[in-house]
Write a structure and sequence with these properties.
The chain is 72% helix and 1% strand. By secondary structure, it is mostly helical. The protein has a two-stranded antiparallel sheet. β1 and β2 form a beta hairpin.
Length: 273
């Protein structure tokens, strides 16, 4: 039977302190979102007269409804394409032992080493030449390309832990390699798929630089760019900014709570591979 020692108490106290440190920015964010602009209290004090007018004004003034729709379209389509393309690419790379498959695999991983800023200018010129500047399709195309290397790395690592017995049984029943993958292998990759979905969803949803660069001057603003609209030459409307941030994090936070157990399982499988 394990005894409660002083080391355990110190460890628990340290974890509580760390949790409070991480929760402090969230507390400040939510508190300021419910404070009136003329509230004289400090940022750590609770609002004297909590109000939801900040949320209403931010929603109307920033056109956050349309921005949320645009962000949802970009995120959902991006995640769908990444899951399908990365899983399909990782399957032969993890199953075939040929030299070309290893070379191709490391070529994909090389994308993890290249900074996004290095390709910003040629990417902008390419999107402009394709006529996708100011469209959601251009942002989706860029996000898919950036999310592929790490997603392939996760899928390939997880697939190496799966036995090939199910695929061999499917081939004996007459299924080709494509049918065996989508009907047998892909359903078994649900944990790592949850990891790929939530990691790419967070980065796509919170992306600010690329929507600002490629959607500037258009009506297809994402939620991050719409919130940035509350910053003007005369100053920043902080009460609307914090209210907009709270609105923007609710969808992705909900998705995280639904998929959090798959994140742990997926990382465990990927690291094991």
């Amino acid at each position: 039977m394990n005894r409660y020692t002083w080391r355990t108490g110190i460890l628990e106290a340290g974890m509580i302190v760390a949790a409070l440190i991480f929760l402090l920015p969230v507390y400040v964010l939510v508190t300021l979102a419910f404070k009136a602009p003329d509230d004289p209290s400090s940022i750590l004090a609770l609002p004297a007269n909590p109000t939801v007018s900040n949320f209403v004004e931010a929603w109307q003034q920033g056109n956050l409804g349309n921005a949320l729709i645009n962000s949802t379209i970009v995120t959902v389509v991006t995640i769908g394409l990444i899951v399908v393309c990365a899983a399909a690419a990782a399957y032969p790379l993890s199953r075939l032992g040929a030299r070309w498959s290893k070379v191709t695999y490391f070529a994909f991983l090389a994308g993890l080493l290249l900074p996004v800023q290095l390709a910003m200018l040629p990417l902008y010129q390419t999107i402009r030449d394709l006529g996708l500047l100011g469209t959601l399709a251009g942002i989706i195309l860029i996000n898919v390309g950036q999310g592929m290397p790490f997603s392939i790395f996760l899928y390939a690592g997880f697939m190496r832990t799966l036995p090939a017995d199910f695929e061999e049984a499917a081939s004996l029943d007459g299924a080709n390699a494509l049918r065996a993958f989508w009907s047998v292998v892909f359903p078994l990759m649900r944990p790592i798929t949850g990891t790929v979905v939530i990691l790419n969803a967070v980065s796509t949803w919170n992306d600010f630089l690329q929507p600002l660069l490629y959607l500037s001057g258009s009506n297809s603003q994402t939620i991050t760019v719409a919130i940035y609209g509350f910053v003007g030459q005369s100053g920043a409307q902080w009460n609307l900014i914090f209210a907009g941030i709270v609105i923007s994090i609710l969808p992705i936070l909900t998705a995280y709570f639904f998929l959090q157990r798959y994140i742990v399982q997926g990382f465990a499988g990927g690291l094991k591979g």
